[in-house]
Amino acid sequence: MLIDLHAHSSRSDGTDLPAELVARAADAGLDVLALTDHDTADGWDEARAAAEAYEIVLLPGLEISCRHLGAGAHLLAYLPDPRFPPLAEELVRVLDGRNGRLPAILARLHRVGVELDVADIRRVAGAATATGRPHVADALVARGVVSNRDEAFDRFLSPGRPAYVDRYAAELTEMVALVARAGGVSVLAHPWGRGSRRVLTPQVLAELAEAGLAGIEVDHNDHSAEQRAALRAIASETGLVATGSSDYHGTGKVGHPLACNTTSPDQLGRLLDRADASAQDARQAGAEPPRAPGVAGVNT
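User: That's the sequence. What structure does it adopt?
Assistant: Structure tokens below.
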């Protein structure tokens, strides 16, 4: 059984429509795919319909932009009710911060002699609900300023570069609790990728587990073999679920093909058990999380 728990569509910064993403997942031989667009659930319905047609299991999720001890962190939230008012309000704040910084980024690019406008961003972003730096990067590629997203981030868009602009992100520990209140379950995405290890230490990961974090993404292309082994040991010691995922973005992010990293069925079973318990509590509080999908060979 092939299980990929982290992938993006064009509703955020992927390049495939949700239905196209599901079709590619089926072609890759996946049995279970999680759609985890940044800060939005807008692709769920389209992806669900496609998953039924292709006879694969869709796990609806989001990748929520968070902050911990002043550093960025990404939280994969599976099966929450995105309309649960406290979560919906926080997602609006995050999306407003993401979308609202575009004028400031464009102004900073202008100062260094790069002319882009909002129309250029919209042209490459299409129907995306969550726009951000990857779309600015795509617009720079379209204009011929850079050759790919990586060069755009290296030259202009990463922290410390001339067009970087900070934005609002949710507090990580509070979001873990809020996802649970909405009936979902949370996994920390690529915790030791992109320099996050200095903040997300083993002690912090243990504290997050105590606060309700369900798992950590162990097998990810941003992690070395040594990091994966250390994270797997931490997961075992703290009772966290250990997942593996591609972090697929289509052509927008090279080197992350679907199913390049996968989650074992037993770990998915543990995650869905946690989600089931969270959903029961949340329904009593008025949330309406989606039902956990039944997966052959997984105890749910």
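The CA atoms of residues 77 and 186 lie 5 Å apart.
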